[in-house]
Amino acid sequence: MEGFVLSDEEYVSEEDLSNLILQLIEMGALEVRGYDSISNQFIYNLTPKCQEIMPDLFEEHFKMINELAFKLWSKEIIDLTFDKEGIPMVMPKNIEYTRSIMNDLPDEERFFLENLIQKYENDTKER
Hints:
alpha+beta, 2 domains, two-stranded antiparallel sheet, 5 helices
């Protein structure tokens, strides 16, 4: 039987996870971002509504994003700087290089970088 470990104590079957994803989408806490043909899976984004209705899930996701950012910064793939208020700002170090190595990275790192590059490019266009 396949499933997923959510924490040290929690195990969720694939069916239960699928049902949870559908519930979160219906409640507006999760949205489909796209489909990844390399891993053959859908990519989801948490919405601000998730913080209201499932704060623990939102907090765990936030921690995971911070850990991914630190890993990628340690690998010198992204830059991490702080603005005047001390808020961290993450940006790709070299987009062309990052794109050339992304397929060799674990899925979660690749998803993070794809989102980061897309946001960076959108922000650059708006300026």
